Amino acid sequence: MRLVLLLLTGLLSAAVQAAPLEVATFDRRYWPEQLDTPTLFDVASRAEILGFARVLHESEALDEGALAKRLNLRQVNMVAVAALRQRLWQQLWRNYDLAQKSCEQDASFCYVIEHLGDLRQQAEKFEVAADSFYTAWAGPARVFHQRYLDEQLRKAALFPQTSSEIERFSDQERNGDGLNDRLFMLTFEGGPGPATDALTDYLRRQKLDATFFVLGNGIQARRDKSSINDLRALYQGQCVGILGWEYRSHAHWQQWQESVMRSAARVQGDLPEQYVPLFRPPYGQRRADSQGFFASQHLQVALWDIESQDQSALTAEQSAQRVLSLMLLWRHGVIQFHDNQPKAQAAVAWLLKNTAQSGIGWEDCKAYAARQQ
């Protein structure tokens, strides 16, 4: 019976999904200014918001067939897509309203926008003049916004058959929505691995902390290879949540509850000072009816808002540039990196260097874990 269910799940997935889309990335050198003041961060933020709003508006003209073709899918959940679009518009309006507070200091990309309807109207006609200081940014930015929007629409189109971070199932799940404007949080998953030691040491030297979502079997292997004291030194000053015992989808795995409980017990026992009661579902995949289980375990599902794509073919700098563009667009959120990727540290270093004077902040990992979403 289990084999039959697995085969049916695979067949349904194949019937819905086709080839994946190209990963969205953007070369920040096309933007002509350094983000070395909070005001210049706002200028770049307004540009990203308006550019993304333009392609979002254009996507609404697509019928179901045209959208499926564009997303390389055979079927599309149009209800989930409509819900995503509505949520994106609300986020864009809130973010633009925050970003326009500095228009007296620099009026670039400032328009009379007093409510969501104004933003929609401006998005419909938004363009960068051929003689603008920002002309070189406009074309590459449009490609980035289009590809990134397609990434989000595709996840919504597949939801909930294929769950992801695109939507929460309940209040037992959290992302970065509760963070203040300009406040971001670093998270890493997939470890511990060979790259984790240098990364945690780097973060401590930068006086930063992050939440590391670890594998139970990885923690056990690391402890067996070294010692529990070495394990605790590895994550000193950081927070440690769980990914489960193995890095595999917890949506259809029969032993998913055992995976969660076993890894939570392992990490809480070995790292009592660093442990936080947060579960990051591998690939963002989890069951729609799992909230009762997580509540019984005193765990929250920890999703993310900004995906670095550092496990793709992107270089460290390309990954960091993608993250920065999305930080400008969303203005707050949880950033997902993978510490089983050596490029993660280089990406974070680039990101810190290029936002040092921009007026952003980094959320304390313990404070985030203690938040009520």
Automatic annotation (TrEMBL):
Keyword Signal among record annotations: yes
Keyword Signal (UniProt): yes
InterPro entries: Glyco_hydro/deAcase_b/a-brl, NODB_dom, Polysacc_deacetylase_ArnD
Superkingdom of source: Bacteria
Record domain NodB homology: where: 180-289
Residues of the signal peptide: 1-18
Pfam families given in the database record: Polysacc_deac_1
PANTHER family: GLYCOSYL TRANSFERASE-RELATED
Protein name per its UniProtKB record: Polysaccharide deacetylase family protein
Species annotation: Pseudomonas fontis
Lineage: Bacteria, Pseudomonadati, Pseudomonadota, Gammaproteobacteria, Pseudomonadales
